[in-house]
Automatic annotation (TrEMBL):
Function per UniProt: Catalyzes the deamination of adenosine to inosine at the wobble position 34 of tRNA(Arg2).
Biological process (GO), any one: tRNA wobble adenosine to inosine editing
Record field: catalytic activity: adenosine(34) in tRNA + H2O + H(+) = inosine(34) in tRNA + NH4(+)
UniProt protein name: tRNA-specific adenosine deaminase
UniProt cofactor note: Binds 1 zinc ion per subunit.
Enzyme Commission number(s) of this protein: 3.5.4.33
Enzyme class: hydrolase
Length: 191
C-alpha cells in the first residue's frame, strides 16, 4: 500500500513564516545599531512594500518602534493614510501605541512573533485589536516563528546585562546604559 503523502503546512502558514523571517532580519539591524531588536515588514498582494526596525534611541524618537517606522514608509509609498489591504508582520507583540496606529490605518491583519507579557496590546496586557468598544477590529495571528523571535530578544537582554555589569566589556555601549533591561524582557519559555 502506498504511504500517505507527508502533511505540509497550509500555504498561508508558510508565507507567514517567510515574512516573519524577513521581519527578524530587520530586528537584527536594530541590534547592530544598539537598539532593542524588534523588526517589522508590511506586505501588500504578497509583496513586501515597507520595512522597519526599532530605533528610538538613535532617532531620539520615543515613537520610533518597528511598526511605526514601517507604517510611515508604507503610507508614504501608497500615498494614503489608510492601508486596509496590508498585513503587518512584527517580531514582538505590538504595544498600545502601535496597536492604535495600526487600527487608525485600518490594517486588516497583523501577525506577530513573541508575546510581550509586560506591554503587549494584542492579548497579553490588553487586546485593543478585538476590543468591542473600538470601531475597527483587526485579524491577529500570534506566535509565528515565536521561538526565534523570543530567542533574539533574550540573547539581546543577556548581552545587555553583561555589558551593563562590566563597563570594560567589548559589548559595552554607552548608548545602551539607558535601556531598561526589564522593559521588553521576555521570560525564558517554560521547558
Ligand atoms: Zn510599539
Amino acid at each position: 500500500m502506498k504511504a500517505p503523502p507527508p502533511k505540509t503546512m497550509a500555504p498561508d502558514d508558510e508565507a507567514d513564516r517567510a515574512f516573519m523571517r524577513l521581519a527578524l532580519d530587520q530586528a537584527q539591524n536594530a541590534w547592530l545599531l544598539g537598539e532593542v531588536p524588534v523588526g517589522a515588514v508590511i506586505v501588500k498582494d504578497g509583496v513586501v512594500i515597507a520595512t522597519g526596525y526599532n530605533r528610538p534611541i538613535g532617532d531620539h524618537d520615543p515613537t520610533a518602534h518597528a511598526e511605526i517606522v514601517a507604517l510611515r514608509q508604507a503610507a508614504t509609498l501608497l500615498g494614503n493614510y489608510r492601508l486596509p489591504e496590508c498585513t503587518l508582520y512584527v517580531t514582538l507583540e505590538p504595544c498600545a501605541m502601535c496597536a492604535m496606529a495600526l487600527l487608525h490605518a485600518r490594517f486588516a491583519r497583523v501577525v506577530f512573533g513573541a508575546r510581550d507579557p509586560k506591554t503587549g496590546a494584542a492579548g497579553s496586557v490588553v487586546d485593543l485589536f478585538a476590543d468591542p468598544r473600538l470601531n475597527h477590529h483587526c485579524d491577529v495571528t500570534a506566535e509565528v516563528e515565536q521561538a526565534a523571535c523570543s530567542a533574539l530578544l533574550q540573547d539581546f537582554f543577556r548581552a545587555l546585562r553583561l555589558a551593563q555589569k562590566q563597563p570594560a566589556h567589548p559589548a559595552h555601549d554607552a548608548r545602551l546604559s539607558g535601556i531598561e533591561v526589564t522593559e521588553l524582557d521576555i521570560e525564558p519559555p517554560i521547558s
